[in-house]
Design goal:
heterodimer, A: 698 residues, alpha+beta, six-stranded antiparallel sheet, five-stranded antiparallel sheet, 53% helix, 11% strand, elongated, B: 339 residues, Immunoglobulin-like, 2 domains, 7 helices, 30% helix
Amino acid sequence: MIKALRPTEQLTTKHSVKSITLLILAIELVLVSLSLYESVFTWVMLIIGCSGVIRVIIYSQYYKHLPTIRTLNLLAVLSILGLIYSSFNESLLLIMVNLLVLACALKLMQARSQRDVYQLVSSLFFVIGCGFIFNQSIGFYIFYTLMSLILLISLACFQAPSLPIQRQCKTVLKLSLQALPISILLFLVLPHLPPLWQVPTSKSFETGLADNITPGDIAQLSQSSDLAFRATFQGPVPNPKDRYWRAIVMEDFDGKTWRTAPLRKKIQEQLKRQNKEFSPAVTGSYTEYDIMVEPTHQNWLFALDIATPNNSKSANEIWQSSNYQLISNQTLLSKYEYSVRSYPQALAHQRFTQIDQRLNLDVPESGNKKTQSWVAFQRKLKPSDDEFIQAVLRYFTQQPFVYTLRPKLMLSDPIDTFLFENQAGFCSHYASAFAYMLRLGNVPARVVTGYQGGELVKENNQAPYLSIYQYDAHAWVEAWTEQRGWQRFDPTALVAPDRIEFGLQQAMQDEGSFLADSPFSLARMSNVAWLNNFRLFLADLDYDWSRFVLGFDDTKQKDLFKLILGKVTPDRLSLLGLGIISLVALLLCLFFLPHWLKNRMDTTQRLYFKALDVFESAGTIRPNWQAPLSFSEDIQQQYPATISNPFTQITQLYLRIQYQDTNKHKHSVLNTKRTHKLMRNHLQKLKKEIIKNNKSPL
Amino acid sequence: MSIIQKQLNKWLDKRIPTANQYQLNHKSIFIFPSKFGALFIGLCGLLFLLGTNYQNNLMLLLCYFLVSIFLVSLLASYINFAKIHLQMGKTSEVFVGDNLHFPMWLNADQKTLQPNGLINFKFKSEKIKINIDKSLSSNGNQIDGNNFTNPVTLNLLCPKRGKVNLSRVSVECFYPLGLYRCWTHLSFPNNIIVFPKPIPCDITLAEKSLNESGESGKTCQQSLGQDDFSHLKSYQLGEPLNHVAWKQLAKGRGMVSKQFASEDSQIGWLSLKHTAASVGLSQAEMLESKLGKLCYQVAELSRKNRVFGLDLGKTKIAPSSGMEHRQSCLTALATYGDD
């Protein structure tokens, strides 16, 4: 990372000059790493800050000496040790980013030579590239674009130290504007390849749903107004109470925690190995929609019940599991779009296997004694499954249950405490308790987590779409009865119908706990009309951004080609390729045109110089100081009349056009075009004669 | 010089023929990605891989943007470099052991556009030659196209008398982003002659050079300052300026020139044969020291505006005086033994 400097590498330019470039780079490094604050370790941040301060001090000439190579080597060794220590449990991606940023900071501290500057600039470009892994919103895109432009400006400053900064900006801006159409063309046309190999990701970046829930352990549900996903509908949008977005099915319960059953996982892995994908029996009407998921760094996908992939691309990339989950083959590292078709009535008609039965009746023997005895009593009264379920649900409506986002902790026998003491909780509490009670009553049941609801956005000439935010996360219950098959039950809906009909915000109006962690969230202020409009406008912008920029993939590319070509055939594709290449070449020519036009002499002069060139090739060169007329006289003496006559004519025409005052002799002036024609004729004659003359030496 | 280099030089001579001045154009400009350019493209490749693996369109966009910048900056570099107009300036006299200051006027015409950025000038050197002959060292000169004073000079140490083997002048520039190196090798007319290093000595004029018998007795010794001032005379056009009595002019008495009375106003000859060399030198060194002494005498005599001839055995220069005579004498001394 750090090497001793060879003296030849020292910059020959002035001192202040190189530091303005380095000052820009220092500011840049600090800003870019601030944008990555979530993934850069705090102590690395401190080192970056130090290097920035060093550069500022040197620029202000408060102190003139860089840290010695020895100090820096020591610092580098310490940093490496620190990095190894801090990244013990971290993912490779995180370590890579930290290493990169750290290397930049150390390089900045000791940068002296031209090579250092170039390396620093390249590394910073790479850091910006890595920034896109973590931040993909429009705001960040604009920020990173600005940062890239500043990097280019720093390069320009390095090459032309005494140009004022405004002109540097102008140069870079001009270059960027010229580059923009080409880069967009490349983006649209170059193939979007699938991932070449599996890339490292990190647990710490996982967002959204967890793969287990332990209701009693959570005193306050943390919420965020981040977007989870968006669904764009081709047909009518389902009603709010039907918007249950299934993500994870949890079938294993140990008295406290619900999680995905290990057996289920094993079976799935086996099926995957044998490539036997589950396909649900689909019946009834369906709705079709596209979903664009935010990067979650997980594999769960979301869909309304019961969903199957709607096109071949989605079918290839999505694995359907036997509990009707959709699982992506790739970890969702960036926005991902897929299209599905949902059959709302199909849930009841699914097959019920032995494994399903075994998994969904399993309850821990110990704990929650009160609930066990209560269920045993109820079950005796209601021998039919349906009646039993209704009785349990009735318990939720008749007792004074409260929906709250700030429940008390329930650490021992959580379900007993919840059902008979606190009677206050949020969706996981209700779902957990309800599923447990059904299982105790010998009704197969399981907890499903996902999202419920969504904000509908309807534009006039656009397909309607739903935005589902993280605070829409929800848990509900699925129970199986012989008569009706699988059925969805949502005890939360009985306690807090507003939660399902109007969303969380409405339900939490009295408690004031909606997004209590983020008081300045725009979503929290949706009752202020213009703020809400602004929020919706931002959401809309983000929607288009996600759909058309982030979600631009090979299918969309194919659609685009189809739009341009009509039909995608190899011939037409290669034609398109040629077209694009010539378009890029044309653009480059266009940028070059002003320079070319500036350098071109006017026609009269050019023709005269051509005539001179002819003589030059014949061996007679006009000295710089000689006037055209006297040169013409020389030619008359040296060459036969056949050659000298046309040249005399050319010279005279040339002088006439160049030097005659057009104002004075309006009538005698020849038409310029005609003169050029004459000159050309004479030039032709001259060339012929010269060739003849050369062939027959005198 | 290897064969490849020879071929290359031949090709260069054909492509960029010798000229007094150049307006750089597509014929004389070479352009190729610099080392940083290669690094930059490598970076783009890396970004492409990362963007593809993370399926990240924004990273791909950044990558394509950088590639386009790379393309566009090719034109920008060329356009900037093509603004350069170079004209050879007049070199001052140079003697052995001196630095030759080779001046070039960069865009002296105010009408033309100025090139931006740092521009490096240096003599194109064949690498092998530099290794063998360390004394032929030349150092480059970096100027800032936006802030410099004309003319741009290149220094070249001249260790040998005679015609300077002036190599081509290399000009290079990395503006605007350092992604491309624009360069050219310009050849300027090779008419600079390095005169022998003058060695101060007494002036020895032979009355007759044609006298083969070598009558050294007839040479007359002269020492400096023996020309005595005799009188003032009104200035005649063509008289050397260093004879003008400037003090008189300042006093308002008009242009008058000093006249010197000297018994040596008759024609004399400087001859190689009659110049004594210092003792204890090898044959070659002896010749050089003789030439140096002659050089000194020519310069001195010309300063005094004396009429003298030069006899170098094979070449003889008829007695005369004036700058042109001085020039031809010095040239003869510089090129002595070349043929």
